[in-house]
Every structure is written in structure tokens, then in C-alpha cells.
Amino acid sequence: MRARDLHPLCCLPVDYCPGGWCAAPAAGDRSPPPALNQQQPAPAPAVVAGVLHKWTNIGKGWRPRWFAILPGGSVLAYYKIRRRRSRAASSPPAPGDAGPRLIGPPGYAAEDRPIGLVHLKISSFRESRSDDKRFYVITPTKTLQLRTNSAKDRVAWIEALVSARSESSPIGGLLYDQNDVSFSTDRLRNRMHAEGLGEEVIRDCEQIVHSEFSQYSIQMKQRCEEYLSFLGSLPQQLEVLNAEDTTHSIKPECSCSGLGKFSESSNTESSDDAGAQELDELSDEDEYNFCDTRQSFSDSAASPVLRMKCSNSSNNHKSVESRSSNGNNVLVPSKRRTKLPEPVEKEKGVSLWSMIKDNVGKDLTRVCLPVYFNEPISSLQKCFEDLEYSHLLDRAHDFGLKGNSLMRTLCVAAFAASGYASSDGRPCKPFNPLLGETYEADYPEKGLRFFSEKVSHHPMVMACHCEGRGWKFWGESNVKSKFWGQTIQLDPVGVLTLQFDDGETFKWSKVTTTINNIIIGRLYCHHHGTMTITGNKQYSCKLTFKQQSFLERNPRQVQGFVEDMSGTRVAALTGKWDESMYYTVTQDIPGVNSSAGATLLWEKNEPPSNPTRYNLSSFAITLNELTPNLKEKLPPTDSRLRPDQRHLENGEYDKANSEKLRLETRQRMARKMQDNGWKPRWFDRDAEDGTFRYTGGYWDAREEGTWDGCRDIFGELSSNRTCTSVDI
């Protein structure tokens, strides 16, 4: 049976008819369908029927379909229209004849098989405010947008649907009578006679088979009753979810630009009208946030993971949890910005091809690219952006305290993949930090403090250190790049380390990033390669970022697995690095439900309501915010004080370009200082592995307000004196 023949909600094939099953040939079978009692059962007659225009997609628009409420009132079926009947064939039935109540114009004939079924017991209906002929049928998995021929017909249809829903029973007509089910043991008896067994043994075997079948029938009946009872309770559960204004609701799967356009055979159908206005209208009228059944109705083992988004991913922080000096948590009011400042000037476009042509034969190391190609954050701030979903590490810490090492590993894997979520649609590059440039991030609402510093100029290396709720994270970033004409390949070098308070440690390296269409076309990036997350205790993980091909229909996929120390795979991960990650437990693990199916582990936050051409996430918009109170506490090396970056954020593009040229000229002195034995201020090389480790003292210096040894890296450099260590 093809996937499109399955009903998206109840897994009923479209061949299903209330009261029985309509036989269908197997895929590829051209023979006549098998007969049942020498004749095929006729489809059940409709109670209410008529023609409605259904929105399909932008290409096909509105198409007439034959809709019918089937007997029992629990199912609304719709069919393609085969032809228009003659006037004689479309005449109403004679008195006494059984026939459906017809709404709308007569004279149509429908195909024999429905193309879709809707269970009315778990559906709701809404009228359009802008069109008195339009209404919506909303189910947990799809929304049908329908249009009648007149306002009167719309009223009649909605009344019929509401009446059918109220009169239908969630179990009516679907349960079978156990006494009606029988089977024969003649084949078993004949076989046992052929083997020479006695009559007494045969009767004992028949009794055992009958007993087992009876128990099986009872269990199947109980399962059927539980399933149908669950379906009957769905409307109440949906009403509760709709009433609770929380972030527990998980949006339906859709494209990043809006609800996707699907064909009629798709499980999820577009509720789009001819434009975005109808989308807004439907959202305003109904305010429905339907939950994916994989996420909301899994067992309790998944519920802590589902609560992560509710408790940790809000962007409007009305109250912030902060740590007082005595270690107690207190709530202090705070609110971070939600948009960038309005630009002062109108930005002028720049052609990269023209720049390359104008600088042929010149020393490219001395060519200053305009700020048009930059976004108003630095690479140091970009490092902290990878910690947007740090609540996954908080959850991992909590799972570890409960002895659930598998869920801890899964959360760490989701965190490692989530760092790429914000890279989608970011056409501009961050500012390269100057040697000695630093960045701090104190986010008490997330329970973490982050610090990073550029520790080497050639090669460019940035080191970072972060402390969270029961965990520490550190690492260094060094990228090797290769230019291939139309693409740039970035290969990260360096190890990221995550250590929990109980001593469990995970280490991994980032995968390769390829930036496409450098010269011509729309700029985009994709990530590919294998990420190995090595744990020092019970579990490790491997994530494969799928290579994106030109004709890839499902790009940005991530697949992986968790294995124990013996190499046995105990869980699988799947998803997309720019959307969400799911996990499935493949082995019986104490404390983890292995029968829940694919369960949501992480989901990308909503984009900001005020997007710019930089396409920064809501979290990234807060990274370069500089308030008067904060400015007094920052060292002179902090990225927020970098003038060209600040001018770009404010939309002062001419000033930003001149400052960028000045700072890059000054930066060329940095390599000489590095060759003369320059050392970072807050990091030092580890004697064992050669990586940069945080030496401490930054937050103490910040508390005291003393920045001894911090260089004025953004100030003016006099042309009549040589560069000293204080200057650089």
C-alpha cells in the first residue's frame, strides 16, 4: 500500500469504509480485485454530501471536490469529481428512497475511492472573517480550506459538520464482536493425523490454540477500546493545549518561509490562501498550535526534554535568575533588546566581483574589504552564539544527577548540533578580532558566564571558557580555509571540551563548512562531515552531517547514534541542523522509555519579529548590546567597544569603513609583536596537550574594576612613534 493511501491521523487506508473494508489490489497487481462472497461490497452511502471548492496549492488553486459525511457521522470523506452528470441522472431521489442530503448544486459524480478522510470527532471548524463563503476544517495534522457557492451553503455545511461530530461516538461501528470471529483448525488436525498423532493429542492441541486465540482476541479488543477512547479524548486535550499560553506547544512542521505547499496526497495540507493575508487570518481566528503526536503523547520519559524549550528558550526575559554573592538565587528585572538600532545612513551595495577586478595585482593582505560584507558581531561573539541552547547542557547535568547517562549523552549531542542552527541564511561574515581582543557574556537568566580572547594572530586562534549550571565548557577555534573558485571550504581545527561537576567529560571537534556561490549566485553554506563526541565514562556519540548535493530534496540532515563502551548502539539520532533533533532508544536502558518512538530532543527557536539583512537570530541580536552600566565595567579590549563594528550596527557605514581601515592597518603590527614573544592576557598554553586554557582572574578584575595589563587595542596609533606592547 502506498504511503498516500494511509490516513495521516488514524493510519486508516483510504479503502476503509465504516462497517467494513473495501478490498484493494496490491501495488503493481493488475489482476481483478479478490472477491468476498463472490461480490465486492458497495461503498457506504453518504448522509450529507455536496460539492465544495478546496484550496490545493498556488499552482492549482481552488478545485471542486465531492465531500460526504459518511454514516455514523464520524468521518468526512472527499473525492475527486469524475464528470458532470446529466440532468436526468442528477434528479433528487423519489420519496421513500434512501439518499444523502445534498448541499449545493446537483449534477456531479464522484470517483469511487476517496482521496482523503477526516475524523470529525477530533476536528474543529472555523468560519472566515473576510469571506462569507469560506471556512476551515482543522485537525491535529492538517487544515482544509474550503469554499462554498453561497453564504447559505456555508451555514448549512458547518451545521451539518457540528451535528455529525456531536452525534458520532468515538467507538461507534469500529469495534468488532468477539463472537463473530471464528477460525478453523481443520488444517492443523489433518497435519497431525498425517504425522500419526492420536486423537487425544490432537484435541489437546486444538484446545490450546482456541485458548490462545481467545486471549489474543481479548487483548486486541482492549487495545482497540483504549485506542478509540484516546481518539475520543483528543478534542479535550487540544482545547487544554490551546488554552494554555505556554511554549509547550510545538509548531507543525513547515518550511522556514511559512507553511509549506503540499499536494493533495501529502499528510499535511496547506492552509494557505492566495496570499499571506489568509494565513494571518487563520492564525488570528483560531490561534491553534497543534502538537506533533510524536512529541506530545510520548510517555513520561520524554517529558523532561519537552520542557526544555518552555523553561530555557524565551527571548524576552521579563525576570532573570541571578546568583548573589552568598550563592542564593534571586530574581532581578532585566530585558534584553529584541532588534538592532535603526540605520543612520542608507547602505550602498558593493559588488565582490568588481572589487576582485579592481585589485588584480595588488597585495591582497593590504586590501580592506568594506563593512558591507560584515555582520555587526565579531568572531569572539560568534563563539558565544554557539551556546544559545545551553539549556541542553543544564538538562544533561540534571539527567546525570539522576543516573541517566544516556539522556545526558543525547542532550550533549543535540547541543553540539544546535550550534549550527543560526548559520542558515547568514550572508555576511563576522569581524575578525584584533590580537588581544576579548569578549565577555554574563547571562544570569541562562545561568552562565562566558569569556573569550584572541590568543594568536597567525594562525588566528581564539580561546574561550564558559561556566554554567553544574558544567564547564572550553575550547579553541582555528580554521583552515581553501578557496575553490565558487566555494570556500572551512576546516575547523581544535577540540571543544565539556566537563560536568561529577567528572564526566565529553570532547568533540566541529565539522567542515562549505560556503557556496562566492562570485555568482545566492550565497549559502552547508555543513558536512562526521562529528565524534567522545565521553570518558559510559557512552559516546557519532553524528554525521550529510553532504548536500545539487539535487538534494531533503538537505541539512543529521544522523547519528550513541554507543556504549562495548560498541553496542543503544540510541539513534536524526534531524536537521537548522530545525530540530529527535532520538530513538534502540536498547532497553533502565530509566529510559524504549517504546516512545522518535522523541523531540531539541528545536530551533523562533526567528526575531524584526529581521534585518544580516538575518541574526534573536539571541545574536543581544550579543553586541552595550548599556551605560555595562560600558563602565568592560575592559578596553572588549568587542563591544570596537568602533568599526559599533558604527556598522548603528548604520554609520562611512565611519565604519574608515575605522575598519584604520584598525586593520594597526593590526598589521600585531604579527611583529607576536614574533617578539607576545602572550595572551587571560589564557595560557597547557603543557600536556598544547591547547589554550583559561588562567582565571578575569571576573575578579571586573569586580574590582582594575584592568592592569590590558592593552588599548582600539585607540589611535601615533605615526611619529614606534609601536609598543601597550599600543598593540
UniProtKB/TrEMBL annotation:
<comment type="similarity">
    <text>Belongs to the OSBP family.</text>
</comment>
<feature type="compositionally biased region" description="Polar residues">
    <location>
        <begin position="310"/>
        <end position="331"/>
    </location>
</feature>
<dbReference type="InterPro" id="IPR011993">
    <property type="entry name" value="PH-like_dom_sf"/>
</dbReference>
<dbReference type="Pfam" id="PF01237">
    <property type="entry name" value="Oxysterol_BP"/>
</dbReference>
<dbReference type="GO" id="GO:0016020">
    <property type="term" value="C:membrane"/>
</dbReference>
<dbReference type="GO" id="GO:0005829">
    <property type="term" value="C:cytosol"/>
</dbReference>
<dbReference type="GO" id="GO:0006869">
    <property type="term" value="P:lipid transport"/>
</dbReference>
<dbReference type="Pfam" id="PF00169">
    <property type="entry name" value="PH"/>
</dbReference>
<dbReference type="InterPro" id="IPR001849">
    <property type="entry name" value="PH_domain"/>
</dbReference>
<keyword id="KW-0445">Lipid transport</keyword>
<protein>
    <recommendedName>
        <fullName>PH domain-containing protein</fullName>
    </recommendedName>
</protein>
<dbReference type="InterPro" id="IPR000648">
    <property type="entry name" value="Oxysterol-bd"/>
</dbReference>
<feature type="region of interest" description="Disordered">
    <location>
        <begin position="309"/>
        <end position="343"/>
    </location>
</feature>
<keyword id="KW-0813">Transport</keyword>
<dbReference type="InterPro" id="IPR037239">
    <property type="entry name" value="OSBP_sf"/>
</dbReference>
<feature type="domain" description="PH">
    <location>
        <begin position="45"/>
        <end position="166"/>
    </location>
</feature>
<comment type="function">
    <text>May be involved in the transport of sterols.</text>
</comment>
<keyword id="KW-0446">Lipid-binding</keyword>
<dbReference type="GO" id="GO:0032934">
    <property type="term" value="F:sterol binding"/>
</dbReference>
<keyword id="KW-0175">Coiled coil</keyword>
